[in-house]
Amino acid sequence: MKTVLRYRSYAKLNLFLEVVSRRPDGYHELETVFQTVGLYDELTFESDCDDIILEGTSVEVPSGQENIVLQAAKLLSDRYDVGKGVRITLDKRIPVAAGLAGGSGNAAATLTALNVLWQLGLDAATLHALALELGSDVPYCLVGGTVAATGRGEQLESLPALAPTWFVLVHPQLHMSTAAVFNHPDLNAPATQSENDSGDAFVACVRAIRAGEALSEIHNRLEEIVFAEHSELEAVKQGLLDAGCSVAGMSGSGPTIFGICASQSDADAVVRDFSEFSTSVVQSVDVGVERVT
Ligand code: C5P
Asked: 101: closest CA among 253, 293, 268?
């Protein structure tokens, strides 16, 4: 009998992102606060297929093994000698290479769905370890919500959900390479953790969220690299603040710039100033991956 599972994977924002130090393995030690929001991709998993195939790809979303959805499926198939196929259809709505972890979320949905479809019975710790093999953000994407993260971004500490919050997302038509931003020679990333005195700001951000207080700023260390080359993004951030957002900043390695508003009507008013851009008005959500049917 054919089984069809449908999942959503939500976009994430970084409410705080500090690069603490450069690691010997080529990654960076981070302090970040992740938040998922109501912008999502949909993935359908159908069992009546002998091979692992992916449909719904485009120029922007590659169809081969460079697609992280296929990497996730292959990882499970090989590791657990599954011997079954799946037809995966991706309905892409989250902008690609935009600092929103869209691909990482798709990978998290694929691990979650195939664990069910292929009846693997993997527990949360095993899924977390597999997710980290696919990318630094993927473990977070399995859980979503409001989470403080350290290490590569995989050491997760759940925080209380934000009070209902509206976000305006502005999507400039640029694709950013996360690796290029992190490896930029101007990135202020000390070689050792002790040389970095930024920890206080992270602690203050986490404390504010725990206390249910409004954020006083969106700090993102990667802005200094990205804004130096794309001053129009800094102008978008300033524009969001001028239009009435309480705070604004870049997500991940960009180019998405977001601002926080107190209400949907405030967010709808702010977004009118950005009619030349693709935009989204969304609320925070408390999941990363969600089964729809
Ligand atoms: O883990 P992921 O494959 O998503 O990371 C993409 C790139 O971003 C890495 O190859 C690395 O250059 C950079 N990165 C980093 N430190 C992190 C996460 C990502 O330097 N904590």
From this structure: 253
Which among 3, 2, 1 has a CA at the least distance from the CA of 291? 3
SS (H, E, C) 209-244: HHCCCCCCCCEECCHHHHHHHCHHHHHHHHHHHHCC
What pLDDT does residue 63 have?
80
pTM above 0.90, yes or no: yes
- Distance in Å, CA 21 to ligand 1 centroid: 13
pLDDT value at residue 1: 86
Ligand 1 mean position, distance from CA 104 (Å): 12
Instruction: List the catalytic residues.
Output: 12, 137
pLDDT single digits (tens) 85-133: 999 999 999 999 999 999 999 999 999 999 999 999 999 999 999 999 9
Ligand 1: lining residues by beta carbon, under 6 Å: 27-28, 30, 135-137, 152-153, 178-179, 182-183
Ligand 1: nearest atom to the Cα of 22: 20
Residue owning the nearest CA to atom 3 of ligand 1? 135
Strands (DSSP E) found in 23-163: 28-46, 52-55, 86-91, 146-150, 155-158
| Atom in ligand 1 nearest the alpha carbon of residue 151 | 21
- What is the model's pLDDT at position 191? 59
**Do you know the residue count of the chain?**
293
Measure Cα distances from 187 to 210, 227, 274 in Å: 30, 12, 29
Which amino acid, 262?
A: A
Residue stretches of the chain with pLDDT short of 50: none
Q: Are strands 278-283 and 166-171 parallel, antiparallel or unpaired?
A: antiparallel
Res 197: pLDDT: 60
d(CA 139, CA 232): 32
Instruction: Kindly list the strands in the beta sheet with 257-261, ordered across the sheet, starting from the edge strand earlier in the chain.
Output: 248-250, 257-261, 166-171, 278-283
